[in-house]
Amino acid sequence: MSKKENFLKGFFKENPIFVFLLGMCPALATTATFETALGMGILVVFVLTASNIVISMLRKIIPSDVRTPSYIVVIATFVTIVGMLTEWLAYDLYAALGVFIPLIVVNCLILGRAEAFASKNNVIDSAIDGLGMGLGFTFALVVIGVIREFLGSGSVMYGNYLPFLVDAPINLFTLDWFLGPNVSIADYALSMFMSPAGAFIALGLILAVMQNKNVRKTEKLEKEKKAMIAEKKRIALDKKKQTALKKVGDAS
Amino acid sequence: MLGKFKTAIVLVIIGAISGFLIWGTNELTNEDILLNRELREQAYYKDIFGLDEAVEITYDSERISDLLEEVIIYDVDSNILGYIYKGIDKNNYGDVVILVGIELSGDISNVIISSSTNTVTYVKNIKDNYLDPFVGQNIDGLEYDSSTGASFTYSSVKKVVKAASSYYLENRGDE
After folding, report:
1. How confident is the model at residue B150 (pLDDT cuts 50, 70, 90)?
2. Positive or negative CA dihedral for B136, B129, B116, B148?
3. Which domain covers residue B65, as residue numbers?
4. ipTM of predicted complex
5. Cβ(A11)–Cβ(A139) under 8 Å?
6. Cα A199 to Cα A141, A144, B34, B163, distances in angstroms
7. Chain A residues with CB inside 8 Å of B33's CB?
8. Closest chain B residue to A62, measured at CA
9. Angstrom distance (rounded) from CA B139 to CA B159
10. Chain B residues touching residue A71 (CB < 8 angstroms)
11. What are the extents of the domains in chain A?
């Protein structure tokens, strides 16, 4: 696998959330808004990349019978560090994510990549894998977050939790832009999508769309395969016919 | 034997590196984290008494029981603006910090959950729907919401508000 393929596989082909259904806890609990989803994604990218690098560096000296507890210690270290940094640099995000920051330790995506990839590959490949998988995870969280926030409030905001680039919260997109001055989309939004039940429904809808796409792709491939087989059969039959005709011609 | 010794050494090294990294990050961030918490706490105090961000306040705090800490809020002229009771309750989901502001008249000025390790959505629900009814009630005849009584967060809120109001009635009621 090339480095580019290694990096890109986490986005679609092996997306942790949409394909492997890993890390469902943060995917459902922290995606009520685009910003909390993005925040959680950034934290996971940091922890996943750093722990993959360290585990890959130590893979030859960690005895196999204690490898899982060793990986957990490494992951927990980076989660503790990331928790402190978040409380320092983005207190509102820290308060919004709450208990889900320490829970990154038990995110099966991180331990899964440590066990399946970092413990068997070199540092550079493991770093690329961690970064790619982490960004794929972030991408999935952001997609769910944007859909939930948009359906739940009619807007997508930035600046409430992440204090970077803006001084005050701004609307990245809102349907209020297209409505009259006396109407607010918030009055018509489906607030259920901001609740835990909405998380399941949003994820279900996304998975259904992806599944539909996969089924269509498989059906198309199947069709093409059948057509190819039929074409090969036809060519073989033609050849047989021609040979038979040639034989008859030679005999006569 | 040698294998077990090697395992032990490796685990010690991993533990030591982890400890060192956490210590280093703590050294780097600790002061600013404490400052952040202090500023947030002050912002909550101002919020409780409806004061503008620019208003200067001072405060004294004292632990009065295992559950409660009393914070006396003063304005720039050292007049008492009111009392805040800070309760840290531990329930099945972890710690919940609750601030109860009581004015000199005995009316509750606000109840705030300042930090919590409970499930964010549930805490938000309690914050949005069940703390406002406390505002403006006199501590002499407090009424609690019965429908949310079973939730851990609201139970903690109820416990702290009850403790704060009884302490206030016993010790500050005549002021």
Report:
1. low
2. positive
3. 46-171
4. 0.77
5. yes
6. 11, 8, 34, 38
7. 84, 87-88
8. B10
9. 14
10. none
11. 3-192, 195-251
